[in-house]
Amino acid sequence: MLNTIWIILIIYLCFFGINISKKIKFKNYKIFKMIKKLNYDSLFLALGTKMGVGTIIGTTIAITVGGPGSLIWIYIFTILTSSIIYLESYLGNKYKQKINNSYISGIYYYTKFGLKNKLLSIIMLLIFITTYSCFFLMIQTNTISEILPINKIILASRILILLILLVTNKITQITKILNKIVPLMCIFFIIISLFIIIKNINIIDDIIKLIIKDAFNNKTIITGMVIGIKRSIFLNELLIGTTSMSSGINNISAETTANTLTLGTYFITFIISSLISFLVLIYLENGNIVLNYNQLLINVFTYHYNNIGLYFLNLLICLLSTTTIISGIYIGISNISYLTNNKCIINLVKIIMILSIISGIFINTNRLWNMLDNVMLILIILNTYIVTKLKNECS
């Protein structure tokens, strides 16, 4: 039943994406114009939210469950729906609000002030915070606990200290932290990945042929397309709300931020996701077997980088999870702070976020992904309805 709903939603989003592309005169495909005008604060906050450990895990799941051809479906879906990212960004920026000399935006604001539906805006805000500031961040800590060789109790205590520091700090400082961490993280990952690809350049042609051939066999069309696209939604956070949140953090034009965040989506898919896929496929192409995706990542990095591979992976996981956790805390606190000044409610939300994030360490991984998929489906369906109603606001 849920898979059927996902398929219907995916088909609708593809056609809706094509329709929006026509409406905005295909601005979402004009890459060179996007590069000329970038809003770095929005870009780094967006990458900070999108480039969590779920980026690595999501791509790995798509490849191992749906097959290598899933990467093609991730590409296709991203291309068709990048205009929706543009629309989300535009709406987030257009309906941003200014509080305490800083700007804030997101689903809540364009639902309340654009759609003029206060009840739905509150419902969307609560679902959004539950989805992102709880479940998305639980994925981060769950992956850390599965990959890092550390006792779960010790890990929980260390993360607890980090979370307390975050929720008690001024949220205005968070974007400054991301501006320093995200570029270094991206550069580090790209360099170490390109090193392996160049080292195995003799089999890259075979891997590309495998990806293309696998994309259109029966298994991949039935399973890989759905798995690949679901993970593509997770990677790009299409209609999740973080895109519109990132687009309104400063007083930059709506078109500039829409260009910036659309470009960020392309970067995640065509650079980061592709590099991860090639690392995994090079490992598998050399006769190694597929394990569960957490163990597969450990084996991939150990295979490519020998003993230092685990240090690379651990560093990468720590950087990725830190940026996502920082962004998630920022998003949760800033949204609730706008909704109410009641310190008891704000502190209660902080406690719920902390407990949720810590619980991710101890919850079964498959169960956690299933819970996330379900709550994410609800959020995307409702947000799809809202942005469809507001599509004429975008130009």
Can you put this structure into words, describing what you see?
This protein has helices spanning 2-23, 31-36, 40-50, 53-66, 70-94, 107-114, 118-147, 152-167, 174-199, 204-215, 218-236, 242-246, 254-285, 293-305, 309-339, 343-359, 365-389; strands at 97-99, 102-104. It is mainly alpha-helical and 395 residues long. The chain has one domain: Amino acid/polyamine transporter I (Up-down Bundle), CATH 1.20.1740. It has a two-stranded antiparallel ribbon with strand order 1-2. Strand 1 (97-99) and strand 2 (102-104) form a beta hairpin. Helix 4 (53-66) packs across helix 14 and helix 5 packs across helix 10 (204-215). The longest helix is centred in the C-terminal third of the chain and has 32 residues, at 254-285. It is globular and about 55 Å long. 47% of the residues are buried.
Beta-strand content estimate: under 5%
Shape: globular
- Helical content (DSSP H or I, runs of 4+): over 70%
Largest sheet, in brief, is: 2 strands, antiparallel
Structure summary, number of beta strands:
2
Q: What class would the helix/strand composition place it in? A: mainly alpha
| Strands in their spatial order, largest beta sheet | 1-2
The low-confidence parts are none
